[in-house]
Amino acid sequence: MPKFAANLSMMFTEVPFPERFAAAAKAGFAGVEFLFPYDYPAADVARWLKDAGLVNALFNMPPGNWAAGERGIASLPGREEEFRAGVAKALEYAAALGTKTLHVMAGMFPAGGDRAKHRATYVENIRYAAGELAKHGLTLVIEPINTRDMPGYFLNFQAEGHAVREEISAPNLKVQMDFYHAQIMEGDLSMKFRKYFDGVGHIQIASVPARNEPDEGEVNYPHLFALFDEMGYKGWVGLEYRPRGKTEDGLAWFTSAR
Length: 258
Prior knowledge:
By secondary structure, this protein is of the alpha/beta class. Helix content is 40%, strand content 14%.
């Protein structure tokens, strides 16, 4: 059965962020992920992980101005110095937290923009980040995101992500396969997972279409969990979903799946 990591940016929001680590451990999780740790000193986040006995499976590199609608800067020409500074900051946190995998968001593609120019910027930034992470034995993942939740996001399809991965050809560069996004954009999940398995570095799940617990909706997650085992996937499965109610009340599926 897969190793599930609770996403503390979306789950256990009944309590403040520092208290979510203990709540996740109490609910039976061994790992957690979250969007960004940067609002807190790295030493504090590391302590919360240690006190709860948790592994940090993943977090994102700095995304630019999140409050202003930015969703990463890796594909934005002219922001290269800021991007490199973000890589360095993320590496500092990863060292303190013991995190082995980092996700970098591509950013929003502006209307009327030159896609070839943005793609060239993206490829060079991802190549740089993969090289820096490789020095520390870390994995970098990129993630296609659906255009319903995030209209204008630069990277949308699994094939796009894997084309970038293959072009850069860095051993530590992988694609994050979020089955929620993939179902909305393209479906055929089992065959896509089989096709791209060797290039998948992290998995996330949620129900479709509502992005709630993975025990409802149009995706057959028990089938996919069995497929993960069949294919020998050893990484974490991040639970990036919004609970229908109190987080603990929606974990019956997790208890039965362990």
